[in-house]
Structure formats: structure tokens, C-alpha cells
Amino acid sequence: MPSTEQKKEPKEPKRARARQLGVRIGQYPRGRFNAITDVPRVRVGHSTIIEGRGKLKPGKGPARTGVTAILPNDGDIFEQRVVGSGFILNGAGEISGLTQVTEWGLIETPILLTNTLSVGSCSNAVVKFMVERHPGIGVEQDVIIPVVGECDDSWLNDIGGRHVRYQHVVEAIENARHGPVAEGNVGGGTGMVTCDFKGGIGTSSRKLPQHEGGYVVGVLVMSNFGRMEDLRVDGIPVGKILAPDYAHYRARENNYGSIITVVGTNAPLLPHQVTRLCKRAALGIGRVGSYAAHGSGEIVLGFSNANLVPRETRKMVYRMKILLDRRMDPLYRAVVEATEEAILNALFMAETMEGHSGHVAPALPIRQVREILLSKGWVPAKPRKPQPPDSATQR
User: Are 115 and 157 in contact (CB under 8 A)?
Assistant: First the structure.
């Protein structure tokens, strides 16, 4: 007897990283955690703020925001600085402290990511945090300019409420860990939107083969850019195909968002080489669908922690290892691949979020995305055995 039960629509699978669904970007192997923390000595921490619901009450909520901290080395970043630089593809955004980073070629504070109107709060918190540990700042030693990147999360968050406080910044810094990194609706990415879907924090890494140096390149993004129609996954125009199904959603208008990209590596680079590496990260952003709109900020910050530069030595001389420019090409390929995958991980891991006043950022429908990819002749990557830990990733 035929069944009278109606055929049920397949459930949307749990959130998963792009690679877990067979999306393998590029050619280089990932690091152990496929995260910026695959770069030795790098740690990441978050503090997430989700409070209230309903209509926006400026200054009171609802809050959908937070802060993410990246610590470039295991030691004291003030005393053992790392080589750094950056690149601005489009400047409708900000990383405070970037002017000094590019001038000196050094990073000497934790790197924080948050919303636009909380840059000052985060900067104040870092100053307090570091002065308590180094009372000589501004007395015997130079003042510090904290490195804080921002994106506008006002579509979902009561951004004027400046809900990020000192304790959230300290929580993110003190919770920073090696190993897997939480992605999607966490930390600074809590209220972010990408190509009209819920975005946020994403990360990825690449490990070069030994004959190309064996270095690791890691990328972490706070992704908040773009329009749905421009979204591409592994080169396929997924957003254009999905757009008719989301015509009933109210999308943000006249707000092109931004993306802050942080690139880390253990390759021994000089500041100008870090700049060149950051420029290539912009190619990865473009692969996903950004055209660096007038109102969008595509800003890249980079660092190399192969050389930890002290504030002082007895003879005030410090000898550094450097990688010759002709060996940079593998790093360029790696950073493009890792940036593209980091953005996709932010999208694939983020869950639907309702913000203030009924504003909703829907989760990317990953089952439907996979079906679209397959219908376009895309061949999913075969499952791979877990990679054994090694000296470059066992952190």
C-alpha cells in the first residue's frame, strides 16, 4: 500500500566549514586547524555580546556585537614586537594605529577587531591593560597606539550604544588560545553581514611544502561586505542564483559594509614584504565578490613573527633573518587561497541572526549552495585523512 506521508524537505545541515562540505580552495594544504593559529605563537580570543531584542532603542539595545583579539606572539608584544605592515584597497573604514605600523614596520600591541563606534573603547581598554603591565609607557618609553580594526554592524546592532566595555576587551585578550578558532557569530563578527547573508569571523591557513620553505600563512577576517548578487563560491556565482529566493528579505541599504583582513606568517619578512603579501590578500577578497564599493573598507593588516624585535639591546643592534623577494611567490598564492577560504568559513559557519527592529541576516543555505555547485559541474574534494601534527602546527 503506498505511503500517505508527505515527502519532507531535507533539513538544512548543521553549520560546517567550507572544507567539511567539500569546498577546497586552491592547491596548497591547510594547516592543522585551518586557522591563523596554525602560525606558531599566534593566539585568538573572542568576547561576544548578544543582549535584548525588539525595536532599536539607541543607547540601550538590542546589542549584537563584540570584540576579537589576535595576539601575534606568545610573549610580551610590547617588549618583543613583530614585523608588520598593511594595505588599503578602499579606505571607507579604519584600523587605528596602522599609520604607525606602516611607518615603523612593527606591531607592539594586541590586534583587536570590533564595531566602528567601539574603536575608542577598545583603544582605551588596551591602553589601560598595557600600562598596568608596563608603567613606563609614556614615561621612560614611547606611548602606544593600539591596533584596532572596525566594521559597521549597525544593521543588527545598537552601534550607538557602544556596548563593548573594558571587561570585554580583557576577556578577549585573556581568553586568546592556540588551536581551533570559533567562527561566524562570535566576537567582533557577531553583528556582521556578508553579501546579505550572516557573516562574521572566519579563518583559514596554508602550509607551504618544504621545498618552498615550509612556512605557514594564516588569515583571519571580520567579514561584513558586499551584495548577494555578487557572491561567488569557488568561482561559481552562487549569490546570483540564490537571490530570487531571498527577494522577500529586507536587506541593508546604502551600507556596503567592510572587511578587515589580518594576515600572519612565520616566514621571515621585512615590512615591505608584508605590505606586498597584504596586497595579494585583496585578490582573495575579490574572488568572493567584493569590488571595493565606494562606501566599503577593504583593509588588510599583516605581520611576520619570525623575528621578535626587542625594544632595546646592549648595542642597539638586532640581526634579523630575511626571506629574499624571489621566494615570495608561494606566499602570495597561499595568502590568496587562505583569504578566500576564510571569508567562506565566516559565511558557512554563521547562523541566522535577528537584530534590532526586525532586521534579519539569514544564514547562507549550505545545503542549497552545495546543490548549486554540483549542478554547475563542480567536483567536491574527496575526504582526506586528518593530517598528523608537526612542529609547525603543533601549537
Answer: yes
Q: What pLDDT is stored for residue 380 in this prediction? A: 86
Contact 264, 107 (CB under 8 A): no
What is the spatial distance between Cα 306 and Cα 1, in angstroms, rounded to a whole number? Answer: 70
Contact 179, 40 (CB under 8 A): no
Angle at 258 between CA 98 and CA 285, to 5 degrees: 90
What residues contact 311, with CB distance under 8 A and at least 6 apart?
78, 79, 81, 141
Q: Which one of the listed residues 96, 118, 296, 304 is annotated catalytic?
A: 296
Cα dihedral across residues 95, 96, 99, 104: positive or negative:
negative
CA gyration radius for the chain?
A: 21
User: Looking at residue 257, what is its pLDDT?
Assistant: 84
Interatomic CA distance for residues 300 and 261, integer angstroms: 5
> Which of 47, 258, 290, 304 is labelled catalytic?
258
User: Which three cell numbers, joined as nine digits, stand for 362?
Assistant: 539569514
Cell numbers at 221, concatenated = 577576517
pLDDT in tens, 12-54: 668 999 999 999 999 999 999 999 999 999 999 999 999 999 9
Closest to 109 measured CA to CA, from 66, 141, 73, 135: 73
Task: Count the alpha carbons within 13 Å of 323 in the hemisphere toward its beta carbon.
Answer: 28
The reported pTM is 0.93
What is the fold of 18-40+75-109+181-375? L-amino peptidase D-ALA esterase/amidase (3.60.70)
Residue 312 appears among annotated catalytic residues: no
Per the document, the length of the chain is: 395
290 is catalytic: no
3-class SS of residue 221: strand
| Catalytic (active site) residue 205 | no
| Dist. CA 220–CA 339, nearest whole Å | 8
Predicted confidence band at 10 (pLDDT cuts at 50, 70, 90)? low
Q: 77 CB contacts (<8 Å, ≥6 apart)? A: 71, 107, 108, 109, 110
